[in-house]
Design brief:
With about 300 residues, this protein is an all-alpha fold. Helices cover about 55% and strands about 0% of the residues.
């Protein structure tokens, strides 16, 4: 099949939306948004407003441009909240891995091949990435180490792993052999090792989605995060049905859980409650929210 669609002017895009049944209250404002955000990006948000079958491209009666655009704004704010909190989790994860492994295996444990699972491929790939990062970084602490010390050739883990991304830390944890230090990392977050490994993989994916401004609110994860059977901290009483277990509700709940171990009394539950209250028309089922999610202890706020 040959792709034969042509680019449309902003005026033509707006006319097409109106032909398909969308109500446009302020055309000048709509044109401004289409000029700066693009029809294609916004179409992912108004897709949920289409009647079935969606291939007919007809909007449900009463659908407004403003309603569709509000979904985009909501998603943008949600991404910013999530990205900010994942930063906290990343720093805590890095700190906890470094602390426990350095105490048990020494400063440069990341160069110890015997600590890694299976074949040597991941060990060599991870250390190759670190070497590349250390060779090109402008961080003063790496430069200082190499100017002052010549043994060992590479800096200790608390310096070297500062250059590792969240995704690299996630893969590092996944590829470390079972040991007391690895177990203590999971215990720090109130989880067992397999659940933490699963959550870190999901959060790495979501972090990348946030960094690239990808849609979150109705996105499905490529893999469903594992749910804890015996959580040490407050968790969900009602988990989403299986078809919703890979939606954003499970992700923000896991973020909330992890934050409760590293930053008790944090403002994330209030931010999520306030954000959803600001956009009451937003269909929450696309995010996998359970019917009584506001009654969950993990989402209760003090104000």
């Amino acid at each position: 099949m040959i792709f034969d669609k042509s680019a449309l002017t902003v005026e033509q895009q707006l006319s097409l939306l109106k032909e398909r049944g969308m109500v446009v209250g302020n055309e000048d404002k709509a044109k401004m948004y289409l000029s700066n955000i693009s029809y294609y990006r916004l179409s992912a948000y108004w897709h949920t407003f289409l009647e079935n079958p969606k291939t007919n491209h007809r909007f449900s009666k009463g659908t407004t441009f403003e309603d569709a655009f509000d979904t985009y704004v909501f998603d943008r704010k949600l991404r910013l909240y999530i990205f900010d909190e994942i930063e906290r989790i990343e720093i805590a994860l890095r700190t906890t891995i470094i602390h426990n492994f350095c105490l048990q295996y020494g400063n440069n444990w990341y160069e110890n091949k015997s600590l890694f699972r299976g074949q040597d491929s991941y060990f060599y790939r991870f250390n190759s990435i670190l070497q590349e990062e250390m060779s090109k970084t402008r961080e003063v602490f790496i430069k200082h180490y190499r100017e002052k010390y010549n043994e060992p050739p590479n800096p200790p883990a608390w310096m070297a792993l500062e250059l590792a991304s969240f995704g690299q830390l996630s893969m590092l944890y996944k590829n470390l052999k079972n040991c007391e230090a690895r177990k203590k990392v999971a215990q720090h977050f109130g989880l067992d090792e397999r659940v933490l490994e699963s959550w870190l993989e999901a959060l790495a994916y979501i972090r990348n989605a946030c960094a690239h401004h990808m849609r979150l609110w109705n996105r499905k994860l490529p893999r469903t995060p594992m749910l804890p059977r015996n959580p040490k901290l407050t968790w969900l009483k009602e988990v989403p049905v299986p078809e919703n277990a890979n939606r954003i509700y499970v992700i923000i709940s896991s973020i909330n859980y992890l934050l409760s171990s590293i930053s008790p009394g944090n403002s994330f539950p209030k931010k999520i409650n306030d954000l959803l209250a600001k956009y009451p028309k937003l269909p929450k089922h696309y995010m996998g929210f359970t019917k009584n999610w506001k009654e969950e202890a993990i989402w209760k706020t003090n104000s």
